[in-house]
Design goal:
The protein has one domain (24-187). The chain is 18% helix and 29% strand. It has helices spanning 87-103, 113-118, 161-164, 178-186; strands spanning 24-32, 36-38, 43-50, 56-64, 73-81, 131-140, 146-154. β2 (36-38) and β3 form a beta hairpin.
């Protein structure tokens, strides 16, 4: 049977194994704007999404930027608010804190002024395009099938953090908000390495 452009009978069947649970991957996070704003909470510019149940979240996509699983995509909802209680929002805040620690090489126990400034954002847009190290997990999708997700950022106190981030401190991006760039610079030594790594 010929492989005509309009005949797909002889096309290979799709087979796409999930990234194994527990894999550490370097990912770039992008946020799909949901158009929801809540000025009382400071959620502006339409980054947040409000679901049918009243839950509010960031619809995040993660693209693996290098290594064995380069260009593979994962998705996770980052909780901001749930009508059922504060737990989901607290989990979302912890996740974002971990992302900032990972992306800007801030040790989780570092409570210096520079590190604390590095954990602040002016808008959820500051998270769009952030590169960090994450741990792959699986959860069920709406069809009951397994899907790979990022639930846990890997921070500088993890023994494989440097390896996952290619053995280098994350570079200061031109697109990084100025207050975060200043905090990241202040948290490094003259050698350019984070203070915690000396």
């Amino acid at each position: 049977m010929s492989s005509a452009w309009n005949n797909f009978n002889d096309a290979e069947s799709p087979s796409f194994a999930l990234i194994p649970k527990g894999s550490l991957v370097k990912v770039r996070m992008t946020i799909k704007p949901g158009g929801y704003n809540d000025p009382a909470n400071g959620w502006m510019h339409g980054w947040a999404t409000r679901g049918d149940t009243g839950a509010v979240y960031l619809n995040a996509e993660f693209v693996v930027v290098e290594g064995k699983y380069a260009r593979r995509k994962l998705w996770t909802l980052i909780g901001l608010h749930s009508p059922k209680g504060p737990t989901w929002g607290q989990m979302g805040r912890s996740f974002i804190k971990g992302v900032l620690n990972s992306a800007h090489a801030l040790h989780p126990d570092d409570m210096s002024a520079a590190a604390q400034q590095g954990r602040c954002i002016e808008s959820f847009g500051d998270l769009d395009g952030v590169v960090f190290a994450g741990k792959v997990d699986w959860e069920k999708d709406s069809y009951g099938e397994d899907k790979a997700v990022i639930k846990m950022p890997i921070m500088p106190d993890h023994p494989q953090y440097r390896e996952c981030m290619s053995g280098e401190s994350p570079a200061i991006s031109r697109d990084m908000p100025a207050h975060i760039a200043q905090a990241t610079t202040a948290a490094t030594t003259p050698s350019g390495r984070p203070a915690w790594a000396q």
